[in-house]
Amino acid sequence: MAEISSETRFLHAIEMGLGAWQWGDRIVWQYGHDYSDKEVQQAFLAALSEGIRFIDTAEIYGNGRSERLLGQFLKEIEQPVLIATKFLPFPWRFGKNAFPRALKGSLGRLGVESVDLYQIHWPTPLMSIDTMMDGLAECIRSGMTRTVGVSNFGQTKMLAAYSGLARHSIPLASNQVHFSLLNRRVEKNGTLARCKELGIRLIAYSPIEMGLLSGKYSVSSPPPGSRARSYAGMLPRLGPLLKLMTEIGQDHGGKSNTQVALNWVICKGALPIPGAKNAAQAQENAGGLGWRLTDDEVANLDQASEAMTG
Ligand SMILES: NC(=O)c1ccc[n+]([C@@H]2O[C@H](COP(=O)([O-])OP(=O)(O)OC[C@H]3O[C@@H](n4cnc5c(N)ncnc54)[C@H](OP(=O)(O)O)[C@@H]3O)[C@@H](O)[C@H]2O)c1
After folding, report:
1. What does the pLDDT look like over 78-136, one tens digit per residue?
2. CA 7 to CA 11: how far, in whole Å?
3. Which residues are paired to 175 by β-bridges?
4. Total-model pTM
5. Could you point out which of 194, 204, 233, 267 has its C-alpha 20 to 30 Å from the C-alpha of 177?
6. 306: CA distance to ligand 1 center in Å?
């Protein structure tokens, strides 16, 4: 295990964050239909009052609305909050200078002078990894971000990013990837282990599999919008895993399936950032903290997830 650099140590101390894709997104999340600004502000405040201090947003979420809402909410609170946002590699963005320019736009919407983590949302074939890392290095040098990370980078690209930043003596702080009981690709292909080895924090997105692991959706009651189609094949097979999660939750004083799903991610050594549309969801999600599954329970959950995902 590599020594974690002093700049990125704070990320390793965070056990759970709050995802803000939901804030303003109408394409996947029905923003403005079953929830709106008021509810997401309440989600933010509920998360804060439960001790969650790390918020993950992106310039593309709600076309900037997520960052703007977070900026508004920040003005109304006293507590310090750690902010992570993301650069979208639009095809018309070329060269390293695109990064500080885009980050400046994010800072304007957020109403802050710097963020704690600036991530590349996903890799692009239109720029070399070294150019992208030169761009991130510029963002650090300009003082607009404390640390930098990547997202949706496979192991080879992640290692290239790590080396690209090392040329600037900058540590790669994180790789934000899909990781849940229903998607264990990064665990199986060695990315999670590699992150631990190199002191890179693996940030787990969709840790409750976009609501599926809460157990509230079924074949007869599918999730709304595009999720219905993308999860149509998975819903009929979820039963045994959900049943085991419920039994394990009961053995821990009545933890919900969602809380078991989040605790499992934490036990694997990753940082979950569940998204929440309202205060009740944010509060329940924070209950994934403060207790721990046993090693046997993790192994049993692994087995049940393996049986359904293969
Ligand atoms: N880097 C990337 O490419 C990338 C990709 C995806 C996500 N992310 C980040 O990761 C965050 C989390 O991922 P995600 O939003 O895709 O999935 P998620 O956290 O697994 O699921 C969030 C959704 O689950 C439902 N939910 C949340 N808490 C619940 C609870 N306690 N009980 C029941 N249902 C609950 C809500 O939707 P319903 O109520 O509608 O079911 C909520 O919108 C995002 O907000 C974003 O910041 C990043």
Report:
1. 999 999 999 999 999 989 999 999 999 999 999 999 999 999 999 999 999 999 999 99
2. 9
3. 150, 202
4. 0.98
5. 233
6. 22
- CA–chain centroid gap for 73, Å, is 20
Q: N- to C-terminal Cα distance for the chain?
A: 29
Confidence label for 310 from pLDDT (cuts 50, 70 and 90): low
Q: Is 61 a catalytic residue?
A: yes
> Is the CB of 19 within 6 Å of ligand 1?
yes
Which residue shows structure tokens 């008021």?
38
Given a cut of 70, whether residue 263 has pLDDT beyond it is yes
| 17 pocket-lining for ligand 1 (C-beta < 6 Å) | no
Q: Which two tokens stand for residue 19?
A: 């995802």
Residue 151 in contact with ligand 1 by CB distance below 6 A: yes
Residue nearest to atom 31 of ligand 1 (CA): 281
Measure the CA–CA gap between 225 and 228, rounded to whole angstroms.
Answer: 6
Select from 36, 144, 45, 162 the least CA-distant residue to 100: 144
For the beta carbon of residue 180, count every other beta carbon within 10 angstroms: 24
Gap between the Cα atoms of 168 and 89, Å rounded: 21
Identity at 110, one-letter amino acid code:
L
3-state secondary structure 109-170: HHCCCCEEEEEECCCCCCCCHHHHHHHHHHHHHCCCEEEEEEECCCHHHHHHHHHHHHCCCC
User: Quick check: helix, strand or coil at residue 83?
Assistant: strand
Sequence-ordered list of residues with C-beta below 8 angstroms from that of 299, at least 6 positions apart, any chain: none
Nearest 5°: CA angle at 54, between 19 and 212? 30
